[in-house]
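Handoff note, outgoing to incoming analyst
You'll be picking up this chain. Sequence as last confirmed:
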Amino acid sequence: MGIDRHRYASGIVKVCRFCPRAPARAVGAGGSHFARRVDRILGAPLPRHSSRAARLLLAMAFALVVALPVGAGALREGPAEGAASQEPARPGDGVTMPVVVHEVKPKYTAAAMQAGIQGRVVLQAVVLETGAVGDVKVVQSLDTVYGLDDEAVKAMKGWRFEPGTRDGKPVPVSVEVEMTFTLKK
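Most recent structure output, in case you need it:
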């Protein structure tokens, strides 16, 4: 079907690692059928009775078998590290604003200083329930060439907050922060 045989066989083996109790069943082949399947993928001729429709059906079944264990594993793991467990709230309507307890100033890059770039970067950040900063996006860019936008994001990731709350409980809150770059004369 246009896929490299070795990559395909390797993918089957990787899926089997996700299902240690019954790895061969995870890819739709039990016992000796598993070995024959891998042999066929790696170049052994297919039996005469296999048709294109049968191969297509097998490929669809394999895709389903792969998607289920991988999807179940993703659901079991929960949100990625640093990710908010719920949609971030906005301050107001019972949600308190997070309070900065540790601020990191952005650093000027040498190239930006030499180019004389000054101004502000506006960031949208999610302050997590822990007070750490999660996702950060540049809302208003100052400089993508000399690295000032990146420096602003990096600095923002180092900030720490007293988290925002709703009904007295910490919640992720979306905030907007302005970082200013000014050259001293």
